[in-house]
Amino acid sequence: MFKALADPTRxxxxxxxxxxxxxxxxxxxxxxxxHTPMTRFGVSKHLRLLEEADLVVTVRRGREKLHHLNAxxxxxxxxxxxxxYTEDRLTTVVTPxxxxxxxx
Length: 104
Hints:
Elements: H1 2-5, H2 8-19, H3 25-35, H4 40-52, E1 56-61, E2 64-69, H5 72-82
Antiparallel strand pairs: 1-2
C-alpha cells in the first residue's frame, strides 16, 4: 500500500475518487491530464496498481468500469500508527540538550 501511495499521480487519483467515486477511466484521465502529461495507458497502469493495493475497487455497469475509493486500508493505517501520535497525552519534546552530539 505504501508503494502505491508514494506516487503523486496515484495520490491525485485517490483524491479525485474521494471527491466523487464511480468514475470511468476517461473521467480520471481528464483530471490527470490537467496536472501532468499522461496517456490513457499510463492512467490505467496507475489504477491497476491502486487496485492491487486494495485502495481502489471497480464495479462494472454495462460496458463501463467504474472506479471507487476504498479508504479502509488507509483508515487502518491511521488507526494503527498515526492516531496514537496525535493524542493529547504526548509530552515528549526534543530540546537542544537532548539532541545527539554534533547536531545542535
